[in-house]
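Structure (tokenized):
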């Protein structure tokens, strides 16, 4: 299972996951996800700092045309999606999804954004739960009733 998060949201997502209280499978998969998020955050930081160094040099030398290009590079990098492969822990991810859906505390600011980002990523990759899926028995009854009318 692949989870994608924009580079600009890596830090707040990592910090949010680190700060919440989880138990059991949800806690285990949080640790695995956070390890991978931290790796992506480190990669992003190195790239961003390289671009920022270039930006600072151009600013100092007053090379304004080149500054525009470097700013565009920065914006592109921050908007880029980091791809986190959680395939080997896919069996644990439903526990994290459930724990986040049932998170008992009010969330504000970056925490709320991170919570939403993680749930969006999980919901787009995990099959819906039985509670979310339509009741198959009711569907067959409705189909049968519809066929009688025809």
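Design, position by position:
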């Amino acid at each position: 299972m692949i989870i994608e998060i924009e580079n600009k949201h890596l830090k707040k997502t990592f910090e949010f996951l680190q700060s919440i209280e989880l138990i059991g499978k949800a806690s285990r998969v949080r640790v695995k996800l956070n390890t991978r998020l931290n790796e992506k955050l480190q990669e992003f930081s190195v790239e961003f700092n390289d671009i920022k160094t270039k930006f600072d040099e151009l600013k100092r030398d007053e090379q304004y045309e080149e500054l525009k290009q470097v700013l565009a590079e920065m914006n592109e990098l921050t908007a880029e999606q980091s791809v986190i492969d959680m395939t080997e822990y896919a069996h644990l991810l439903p526990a994290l999804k459930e724990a986040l859906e049932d998170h008992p505390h009010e969330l504000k600011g970056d925490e709320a954004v991170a919570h939403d980002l993680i749930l969006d990523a999980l919901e787009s990759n995990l099959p819906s739960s039985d509670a979310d899926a339509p009741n198959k028995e009711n569907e067959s009854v409705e189909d049968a009733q519809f066929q009688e009318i025809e």
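Reviewer-requested clarification: The two ends are 44 Å apart (CA to CA). Residues 94 and 127 are 9 Å apart (CA to CA).
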